[in-house]
Amino acid sequence: MNPAIAILLLTAPILVTGFVSYHISVQATRLRLILAFSAAYLFAISIMHMLPEAFAQQNVKQTGLFIVVGFCIQLIIDTFSTGIEHGHVHLHSNECKKHLPYGIIIGLLLHSFLEGLPVYSFALNNGSHVNHQLVYGLIIHNFPITIAFVSLLKEHQTGRSKSLMVLTVFSLMAPLGYFSSYVLQSFGLNNYEAYGHIAYALVIGIFLHISTAILFESSEHHKYNIAKVIVMVFGIIMAYLIS
Fold it and tell me: What mean pLDDT is reported for the chain?
């Protein structure tokens, strides 16, 4: 995959989804279905593609350690973002509506930046420097996040110009992570291969946290309705076909 195309695929869906969501409200039931699909896809792509690729490297124990670290990092980020990465939108009082939710924004931006780091660093197959499976995973992952984020901005009475600015910054964070890895390798970071493996393992941990949190939370009274089961099956099938 061409790097320019990868950057476009990482930014455009967020901006388009954000624009549409700003003008058209998405029902909570439909958002839960989108979340269930994205979670099933992320979980399946992590198990079928990312984990085998990560553990195929030399230091299996280190890889496992940083997968756990990535999982824990997302737990910490959740304390700032209040779980918006898995579709949660929390408002605490009417006063919260009068200013931007800076903690949530910072947590979400950090989350997106970390996910972009291994887009370059762990994709050297067939002469390509872009991990297209990870790019597709981020696209699907960012659809429900963007919908939830725009809903939050609307609840906080954020103007269109500010909303567009925040969405633009959000859309650029994964490409910024990708570009950061590119710069580190271009300028000859010592032991860059180890850095690439660590970044990849961290994202696997983040994906596992996000996907399992969504899958557990999407059930009501520990029951799944047929619609959720169907979209989850489609997510798994898509992950299998892409990986």
Answer: 79
